[in-house]
Design brief:
This protein is of the alpha/beta class. The protein has 18 helices and 14 strands. It has an eight-stranded mixed beta sheet, with helices on both faces. A six-stranded parallel beta sheet has the order 11-10-9-12-13-14, with helices on both faces. β5, α6 and β6 form a beta-alpha-beta unit.
């Protein structure tokens, strides 16, 4: 009989490549997986429940409380307010104190920061309920924002279950996570897990220094691409570029700390090529303003994010790929991001930052050039070096293909399944020892 896994992730599960790979690998290895994520009310086509196959199900919990949803409907259809208004007036007459108190509470929740706590608390509660009643053999929390759910479901029961903490990021040094509460919460919960997984050796050593133990390492490598599949989206036609134009590609989130401002500043210094940025994020409007002010609309093109399954068809059009993170936190400094390996899979040499995990691949496997990603002149130097040395560039293209044979999920997934198998073997040995007692 297959062992059941209850997994949590704090997103809509539409473009989460790592979690998809993990779920797929577990099913292939003989596990049954239920993934709990969050619904997106802005995407009407996103189902609240998906059955990917016989042993892999996805449940998206409601994002907003019912009251929020009702209020949104009332904005579009004011007549829906009539029965609510009648009920409120009736309550105000016959139960004035409770009604007024409840009204003040709701207004406070809607108009203050408590609204965030209310919304997020509701999501956590709904995840916990589903995870608890599923009675899974192993609970798997992706990142700190789902670790409380996993902890409660796994450990707040008579017969405790195994709990895996899969930390995709460095929670104690990460952009947007500046409060001390994140470190306090992680330090408290990390003592109550059965196994921790991190993305690379640099982060594992950091964790050892912080908490005194060395977690398992499962790298964030992409699926190995079919070498016979060389389909491309006609990106030159789509962007109205001449067929000979070299596409200099950034793909990924358009967020702070990823060196994207410096990348745009470097564009006027490129000997040739058009910078194409595929993705979305909070920084995108600012970058579009930069392009407008610098009069670079002909040399910088933006495209929205594309589904993961289609992304390689865009990547194959690139002449050079960029991974120019800035050292704004240890999470960035220690990254070995998925996009780097996506470039390698497509045979695209990179201009990249000099951080240890990225440098290990770029310089160690000679798949690109590392530069000071904080200096736009350095980024331009790296680009022009590849543009002006065709022989060196072609060797790097070959090296990308060679490197992709070892940096891929087909080789890496066994480290994930071994973590699971080890935990279950521990349970088996424990149960056998109990049976052998006189």
């Amino acid at each position: 009989m297959r062992k059941k896994v209850g997994m949590f992730v704090w997103n809509h599960f539409t473009n989460d490549a790592r979690v998809l790979r993990e779920c797929t690998a577990l099913v292939e290895s003989g596990y049954e997986v239920d993934l709990f994520c969050i619904d997106d009310p802005n995407d009407q086509g996103l189902p609240s429940f998906e059955q990917r196959n016989e042993f892999f199900r996805i449940t998206r919990v409601r994002r907003y409380p019912i009251l929020f949803t009702w209020m949104q409907k009332c904005k579009k259809h004011p007549l829906l307010l009539l029965p609510l208004l009648l009920i409120y007036l009736f309550s105000l007459v016959y139960l004035p104190i409770p009604t007024i108190s409840l009204s003040v509470l709701i207004i406070g929740l809607l108009k203050t920061k408590l609204r965030v706590i209310w919304v997020r608390g509701g999501i956590i509660a709904r995840m916990i309920i589903l995870g608890w009643i599923g009675r899974y053999d192993i609970y798997h929390s992706n990142d700190l924002n789902t670790l409380p759910q996993g902890y409660i479901c796994a450990k707040w029961r008579w017969k405790k279950k195994k709990l895996i903490y899969d930390s995709h990021e460095v929670q104690t040094s990460r952009t947007g996570y500046d409060g001390k509460s994140y470190g306090i919460l992680e330090r408290f919960l990390i003592k109550r897990i059965d196994k921790m997984i991190v993305e690379n050796q640099t982060r594992a050593k950091y964790n050892e220094e912080l908490y005194g133990f060395y977690p398992a390492v499962v790298h964030n490598y992409p699926f190995n691409m079919d070498s016979n599949d060389q389909k491309k989206v006609p990106l030159h036609d789509l962007l109205r570029l001449p067929p000979s134009e070299k596409i200099l590609l950034y793909q990924g989130g358009i967020q702070v700390g990823r060196g994207l401002e410096q990348l745009i500043q470097a564009v006027p210094l490129f000997d040739e090529g058009t910078l194409v940025m595929i993705g979305d994020g909070r920084l995108k409007p600012k970058l579009e303003e930069m392009v407008e002010e610098m009069e670079l609309k002909e040399k910088v093109k933006f495209l929205p994010k594309v589904p993961l399954v289609d992304l390689p068809k865009y990547t194959r059009n690139a002449y050079i790929g960029f991974q120019v993170l800035n050292n704004v936190c240890f999470n960035h400094y220690s990254a070995s991001s998925n996009k780097l390996f996506e470039y390698l899979m497509a045979g695209v040499p990179v201009v990249a930052c000099q951080f240890p995990e990225i440098k290990r691949v770029v310089e160690g496997d000679e798949t690109g050039i590392c530069v000071d990603s904080h200096d736009y002149r350095e980024i331009a130097r790296g680009v022009n070096e590849l543009l002006s040395n065709p022989e060196k560039y072609m060797n790097m293209r070959k090296n990308c293909k060679i490197a992709s044979r070892k940096y891929n999920w087909e080789k890496e997934k066994h480290y994930l399944t071994s973590v699971y198998d080890h935990l279950l073997n521990e349970d088996t040995k424990k149960n056998n020892s109990i049976l052998e007692l006189p």
